[in-house]
Amino acid sequence: MTEYLPVPHQHSADCGCYRPEYLPAAPQPPQIVHQHIHQAPPDRTLQRLALGAGMGGGAVAAGVYFGPLLVGALSAIAINLALVAFVVVAVAWGLSTAVKSIGGSDGKAAAENLSKARKRR
């Protein structure tokens, strides 16, 4: 059996300093590696497909850069169109209400003619 205790301190005449002698390496138990494999996040799926399909790094960079940019631009366009549609509906409702209330009987007749014309289409 090998002793794993340090060697006693020895002085020598030629050197006034202490030189430790290294111990033999103690046997190490085998190291256990815990590897966690996770599914790729959804925003990287296209980039991984592009790399696997043989496309270059430019396709990956374009997907990373222009993907969120395109989503942001389309969202802004959709919000603008929704806002314009809301303003058009509000103005049309306001005008028809104003014509009915201000115009008296002529205004009501004009509003009825407009509603009849819309129903015919």
Describe the protein.
The chain crosses the membrane at residues 49-67, 73-95. It holds the Pfam family DUF6251. Residues 101-121 are annotated as: Disordered. Keywords: Membrane, Transmembrane, Transmembrane helix. The protein is an all-alpha fold and 121 residues long. The protein has three helices and no strands. It is rod-shaped.
Spell out the blueprint of helices and strands:
Layout: H1 45-52, H2 57-102, H3 104-120
InterPro entries: DUF6251 (IPR046218)
Transmembrane segments: 49-67, 73-95
Protein name: DUF6251 family protein
Percent range of helical residues: 55-70%
Mean pLDDT: 76
How do the SSEs run, as a string of H and E? HHH
Rg calc: 41 Å
Number of helical elements: 3
The portion of residues forming beta strands comes to under 5%
Please state the structural category. mainly alpha
- Spatial separation of the terminal alpha carbons: 104 Å
Low-confidence stretches: none
**What can be said about the biggest beta sheet?**
none
Anisotropy-based shape? rod-shaped
According to DSSP, the number of beta strands is 0
Short précis:
The chain has 121 residues and is mostly helical.
Observed structural traits:
3 helices, mainly alpha, 59% helix, 121 residues, membrane, single chain
